Amino acid sequence: MYTSADHTFAICAYGESPYLEELIHSLKEQTLSTTLLLATSTPNDLIRGLCEKYDIRMYVNDGPGGIAGDWNFAVSCCDTPLVTIAHQDDIYKPAYAEEMLTRINSSILPLIYFTNYSELRDGREVNDNRLLNVKRRLLYSLGKLENAGKRWAKRRALELGCAICCPSVTLCLPNLELPVFEAGFGSNLDWQAWEKISRKEGDFLYNTNILMLHRIHEDSETSHLIRDNRREAEDLAMLKKFWPAPIAELINLAYKRGQKSNG
Q1: Spatial CA neighbour of 102 closest among 4, 28, 5
Q2: Which of 55, 58, 90, 116 sees the fewest Cβ atoms within 10 Å?
């Protein structure tokens, strides 16, 4: 049985995010207290000051950079078997850690745990729009506990786009291959990771409760990727892991329209 001592929120901080302190507040206000650390490849006065203010240990990545490098570094800094990579712009609801442990302890072979989520736009919580509704439909089968370990259900959540919200994910490291993330993709390295993990025996544990808020704003990395069209190419590459090329290209056209709601 996993306990609160077995989990870490690994905060990934980059640059000078005006939202970082709000994220830290949400982690400090969890109903179940677990370990916090912060990993960054861009140490600065803002990050140092917040780590000192909230007594959070800071680790500096001097190795491979990029999103994959930063995420893998954050995971490597953790001494616990359960890790949630907390993105600096997002917010976690108070029950996230408590409900995560309950669900993971219900599984014989947990791979990843993740939750339903809302978007945070201009300070307002949005939990009902076309993109969110599509993702929830893709996750419908995994919402039933008996399907958590079924390969078809795990892959259905990924075959038309990545329905799993990356910052809502807790990794069960003893059951995964490290490093979790592979360099090469800019926005879809999480989709790539979940696709690889979906082939393994074990459970994708989906909590249908909304337990985090994913911030959408102009300066997000995803918004930048969409604007320079890298996202479209990456989506197509991922879709081809599930579908023949002609079908993947048709799906990608529809998926591209959905990206417009991000920025």
Answers
A1: 4
A2: 55
